[in-house]
């Protein structure tokens, strides 16, 4: 069976991730490299475990989280689709058993549908990937931390304003919670929603697919 360790050590996956990081650095985007993909992979696996998915499903969510952005080096637009196809090219011919092929197809579906602009949540792995990916908002994602850049780039400014980010689940209440601490001297809460409103709506829909509620807490103010 395909494992996260095998994926991480695959030369093709490594090359795509490196190329993606280089390309998005060139464009001036926030971090989409090793830090981000490992955060997403870890969060996805933890969430899968906490909502009661099997160990195999937990592994698949971790793989999807690790590979979800690998298509960015080809194009930002529709990178979810190119990433899914690239993933299949690396592994589909190595696994002939129908269950293994099914696992690969589920990962492909999750990767292909993780973007909020063209989304269709069709499996639990995909829903978990959405939540793990869109919840990664933090100043550590900002590459260019110069005052001039922070001032002019609203995406970097909003990310840089997030001093602490906690992603957790309340099993009893079936709540998936993103708790942020924002420095309002850098950006206001309304500016956060100006940039991330679509993503938070996507998180709500993903949580509902998992029969949970998405809760956003900003500076101890609860939004649900």
Automatic annotation (TrEMBL):
Protein keywords: Hydrolase
InterPro entries attached to this UniProt entry: HD/PDEase_dom, HD_domain
Hydrolase found in the keyword field: yes
Q: Show where the HD domain sits.
A: 40-135
GO MF term (any one): hydrolase activity
> What's the protein called, per UniProt?
Phosphohydrolase
Taxonomic classification: Bacteria, Candidatus Falkowiibacteriota
């Amino acid at each position: 069976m395909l494992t996260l360790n095998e994926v991480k050590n695959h030369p093709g996956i490594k090359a795509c991730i490196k190329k993606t990081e280089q390309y998005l650095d060139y464009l001036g985007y926030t971090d989409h490299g090793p830090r981000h993909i490992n955060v997403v992979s870890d969060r996805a696996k933890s969430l899968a475990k906490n909502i009661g998915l099997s160990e195999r499903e937990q592994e698949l969510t971790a793989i999807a989280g690790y590979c979800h952005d690998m298509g960015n080096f080809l194009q930002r637009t529709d990178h979810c689709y190119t990433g899914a196809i690239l993933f299949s090219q690396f592994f589909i011919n190595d696994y002939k058993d129908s269950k293994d092929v099914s696992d690969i197809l589920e990962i492909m579906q999750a990767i292909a549908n993780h973007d909020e602009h063209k989304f269709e949540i069709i499996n639990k792995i995909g829903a978990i990937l959405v939540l793990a990916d869109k919840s990664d908002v933090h100043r550590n994602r900002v590459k260019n931390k110069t005052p001039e850049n922070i001032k002019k780039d609203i995406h970097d400014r909003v990310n840089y304003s997030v001093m602490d980010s906690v992603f957790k689940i309340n099993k009893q209440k079936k709540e998936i919670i993103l708790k942020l601490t924002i420095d309002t001297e850098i950006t206001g809460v309304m500016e956060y929603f100006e940039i991330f409103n679509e993503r938070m709506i996507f998180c709500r829909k993903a949580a509902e697919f998992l029969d949970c509620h998405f809760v956003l807490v900003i500076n101890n103010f609860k939004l649900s």
